[in-house]
Amino acid sequence: MKPITIDRLRINHLNNVLVDVAFEIHTSLALVGQSGSGKSLILKTLLGLTDKALEVTLEKQCGFEWIRGKSVALVPQNPFTALSPLTKIADQMFLERARCEEIFGWLGLGVDLLNRYPSELSGGQLQRVVVAMALSFEPSLLLLDEPTTALDPHAKKVMIELLRTLQAKMGFSLLFVTHDMGVAAELCEDICVLKEGYIVEEGKMAHVLANPKNGYTRQLIDADFKTRDFRV
Fold it and tell me: Does residue 189 form part of some domain?
């Protein structure tokens, strides 16, 4: 995969800097920070969805045409926000039935779910459905907005393994926005730690977790792994 370089992503509001970052996505990058650190603003900017009141600078380099919903796709944190509760799943895919069934097969979803409404699916099934939607156009970059937050431990593990398998199969790059260091460590090769709109530490995931240089990074790791048996 050719790296995707964000040379500068800067967001201002009334002369106040909300976000000012630069990073590179090789295969999989976790952008980790607490609530309010700027993660959601970065995602919205990459998708071209920022409020008009904000002053945005985005300089990027990539080897594909940057088209929201096609070459750049999003998996949201809450699948209910991406699905109509009154419409069957098949009618929300906007694909031929055979293609829907193929993609559902990749995600371990029974094709019978296509004939159901969102309320008839479990949380884990719904999350996989929105992943199927995001991957239906075979994107070059997949954005993940904390898609495992509402899942139980088993469903979370299944989702991580599916994303790994699908990335190897389809070859997309991955940007994972999260506050969960544990999931980030399982899914991504690289990490940027975000605090108050700025990146305070970055590098290979295993190295940063084992040798954090910034006190804020150490706090995030300690808070997340204090009850885990974590080994690099």
Answer: yes
Ramachandran sector of residue 199 (left: φ over 0; alpha: ψ -120 to 50; beta: rest): beta
Helix, strand or coil, per DSSP, at residue 102: helix
Cβ(89)–Cβ(114) under 8 Å? yes
Boundaries of domain holding 118: 4-225
pTM of the shown model: 0.92
Can you give the CATH number for the domain in which 69 is found? 3.40.50.300
Establish if 174 belongs to a structural domain.
Answer: yes
- CA 107 – CA 1 distance, rounded (Å): 22
Domain count, the chain: 1
Asked if residues 51 and 156 have their Cβ atoms less than 8 Å apart, the reply is no
Q: Decide: residue 13, CB within 10 A, 0-12 exposed, 13-18 middle, 19+ buried.
A: middle
Could you list the mean pLDDT of each consecutive 10-residue stretch along the chain, which spans 232 residues?
92 95 97 92 95 95 94 92 93 92 93 96 92 93 89 87 93 94 93 97 96 93 60 32
Closest C-alpha to 102, from 166, 157, 43: 166
CA distances from 77 to 16, 41, 128, 150, 177 (A): 28, 14, 12, 8, 10
Which pLDDT value is given to residue 225? 57
Burial class (CB in 10 A: 0-12, 13-18, 19+), 215: exposed
